[in-house]
From TrEMBL:
The species this protein was found in: Williamsia sterculiae
Domain Luciferase-like: 28-392
Protein name: FMN-dependent oxidoreductase, nitrilotriacetate monooxygenase family
Origin organism lineage: Bacteria, Bacillati, Actinomycetota, Actinomycetes, Mycobacteriales
Keywords noted in UniProt: Flavoprotein, FMN, Monooxygenase, Oxidoreductase
Source organism superkingdom: Bacteria
Length: 453
C-alpha cells in the first residue's frame, strides 16, 4: 500500500522595500496602498493558499547614516494591514511579524487575540528578535539587550503571551437565560506571570481564540535559534532552498521538536521562494536572467557586500573582482536596519571569492548568483514538479511564495501552477476548515481548548 503524498502548504508574501521587488516595472503598483495588499491576499485565497505573510521593519535602513532610497516609501504597521485584510478574506490565514524585544506581552497578546476574533481564527504571529541599538532607539528600551539575551527574552515573551491567551478557560463563558446572553465568570482572564524579563498580573480582556491559540511562526538558523523554534513554533521559515542542505535542516529541526516532546508533524518547515514562469524552459531562464540583472545593479551588489564586509566598498568596481580585503566585524556598522544573515563573515567572504574565481564572475554577478532566494524557474509544469519533488523528499512542508512584481505577480502562479499542483493531488481544491490551524493540519494545544458557549 503506497504512502499518501504530503500536502503542500503555501503562504504568500508581498514584496516590500528591497531589491527583490521590481519597483521600476511599468506594471508595478504601490507597496503600501491597501489595494496592493488586498489584491495579493484575494489572489492567494483564490489559489487556496494557507496564509498571507507580512514581514516588518521597525526602522528605515541606512547606509553610512543616510536612508536607503528604497525605504522612502515607508513601512506601514503590520497588524493594521492584517486586520483590514480580515474583512476582505474568508479562509486565508493572516500572519504578521512582531518583534519580541521591543513589545510587551499584554499588548501583543491582546492584538493577536483580537485579530483572531475578527478573522474567525486565522491569525499567526511570526516571532522575531532584535538586539541592535539602531532599531532600539525608536523605543523606550533602546538597545538594552545584549545579543545573548534576545532568545531569553523571546522565550519568556512567548510563555507570557501563551499564559494570557490561555487565561480564558473553556468554561469561562456561562449562559445567563434571564438576560438571554453569555456572561464571563468572575475570574475569567485572570493571569499572574513572573520571570526574569516580565512580572505581570491582571485580567486579560479577549476571550479564548477560535483556534485555541494563534499560530506561532519563527525562523531559526543558529543552534540556539533552532532549539527555540523547535520547542515553540508551529511553523519555521527555513533559509534553505536546495534539497541536500534543506533536507538536513528539515531532519535536524524535526528531531529537535521530538526532543522537546512534540510530534514531528506538528512543526511545519517553510522556505521562501520567488518564481519565474516561461512558455519553455529556455524562455523562463531568459526571463529570470533579465529580472535578476535588473534587481542586482552595481550599487545594490556593493551595498549587499558592504553589510557582510562592514566596510565602505564604494571605491570598488562592481564589474571587477570580489575585494581581497577581509571583513571588519569590529567597526561601527556601515549598514543599519537590515537583518544580518551570516553566521561567519570570514567564511562567507572566502566562499564568495571561491565562487567568483571558479565561475569567472564579477563582483555584481557573484552577488546575483549567491544572494538569490532559491527561485523556482521553468514552465508551469516544471515549477509544479519542483515544488512537489522538494516537499515529497522532505526538503520542506511547503513554500512561502512571492513575486518580484507587486501586486499582480502572484496571479500568474495561481493561474498556471496551482491547477497543476491540484491535479497532482498535493494541493487542496477547497479549504479543510475555518481556522488557520484547521488548514495547516495543526492540533489545538491541550491547554487551549476553545470555548464553546
Amino acid at each position: 500500500m503506497s504512502t499518501p503524498k504530503k500536502q503542500v502548504i503555501l503562504g504568500a508574501y508581498l514584496g516590500g522595500v528591497n531589491h527583490h521587488t521590481a519597483w521600476w516595472h511599468p506594471e508595478a503598483g504601490s507597496q503600501i496602498d491597501f489595494d496592493s495588499f488586498e489584491h495579493t491576499a484575494r489572489t492567494a485565497e483564490r489559489g487556496k493558499f494557507d496564509f498571507f505573510f507580512l514581514a516588518e521593519g521597525l526602522a528605515l535602513r541606512e547606509r553610512a547614516g543616510e536612508i536607503f532610497d528604497q525605504d522612502i516609501i515607508g513601512r506601514p504597521d503590520t497588524l493594521t494591514v492584517l486586520a483590514s485584510l480580515a474583512a476582505v478574506t474568508e479562509h486565508l490565514g493572516l500572519a504578521g511579524t512582531i518583534n519580541a524585544t521591543f513589545n510587551e506581552p499584554y499588548e501583543l497578546a491582546r492584538q493577536f487575540a483580537t485579530l483572531d476574533q475578527l478573522s474567525g481564527g486565522r491569525s499567526a504571529w511570526n516571532v522575531v528578535t532584535s538586539f541592535d541599538a539602531f532599531t532600539g532607539q525608536n523605543f523606550r528600551r533602546g538597545g538594552f539587550l545584549p545579543h545573548a539575551q534576545r532568545y531569553e527574552r523571546a522565550e519568556e515573551m512567548v510563555a507570557a503571551v501563551r499564559a494570557l491567551w490561555d487565561s480564558w478557560r473553556d468554561d469561562d463563558l456561562a449562559a445567563d437565560p434571564e438576560r438571554g446572553r453569555f456572561v464571563a465568570r468572575p475570574d475569567a482572564g485572570a493571569f499572574d506571570f513572573h520571570g526574569d524579563q516580565f512580572d505581570i498580573r491582571g485580567t486579560f480582556t479577549v476571550p479564548r481564540s477560535p483556534q485555541g491559540r494563534p499560530v506561532l511562526l519563527q525562523a531559526g538558523v543558529s543552534p540556539q535559534g533552532r532549539d527555540f523554534a523547535a520547542a515553540n513554533a508551529d511553523a519555521i521559515f527555513s533559509p534553505y532552498g536546495k534539497l541536500p542542505e534543506a533536507a538536513e535542516y528539515y531532519r535536524d529541526v524535526k528531531a529537535r521538536a521530538v526532543a522537546s516532546g512534540r510530534r514531528p508533524e506538528d512543526l511545519k518547515i517553510l522556505p521562501s521562494a520567488s518564481f519565474v514562469i516561461g512558455d519553455s524552459e529556455e524562455d523562463a531562464w531568459d526571463r529570470y536572467r533579465t529580472i535578476r540583472d535588473e534587481q542586482v545593479t552595481g550599487q545594490t551588489a556593493l551595498i549587499l557586500l558592504e553589510q557582510l564586509w562592514n566596510r565602505d566598498l564604494s571605491a570598488y568596481d562592481p564589474e571587477g573582482p570580489i575585494p581581497e580585503i577581509d571583513p571588519d566585524p569590529d567597526a561601527a556598522p556601515i549598514i543599519q536596519g537590515r537583518a544580518f544573515l551570516y553566521q561567519d563573515r570570514f567564511d562567507t567572504a572566502a566562499r564568495l571569492r571561491e565562487v567568483s574565481e571558479r565561475k569567472k564572475l564579477s563582483l555584481r554577478e557573484t552577488v546575483a548568483d549567491q544572494f538569490e532566494r532559491g527561485p523556482l524557474i521553468g514552465t508551469a509544469a516544471q515549477i509544479a514538479e519542483q515544488i512537489d519533488t522538494f516537499v515529497q523528499n522532505d526538503g520542506s512542508d511547503g513554500f512561502i511564495v512571492g513575486s518580484h512584481l507587486v501586486p499582480s505577480g502572484l496571479d500568474e502562479f495561481v493561474d498556471r501552477v496551482v491547477p497543476l499542483l491540484q491535479e497532482r493531488g498535493v494541493l487542496r481544491t477547497d479549504y479543510a476548515g475555518s481556522t488557520l490551524r484547521d488548514n495547516l493540519g495543526l492540533p489545538i494545544p491541550a491547554a487551549a481548548a476553545p470555548a464553546t458557549p
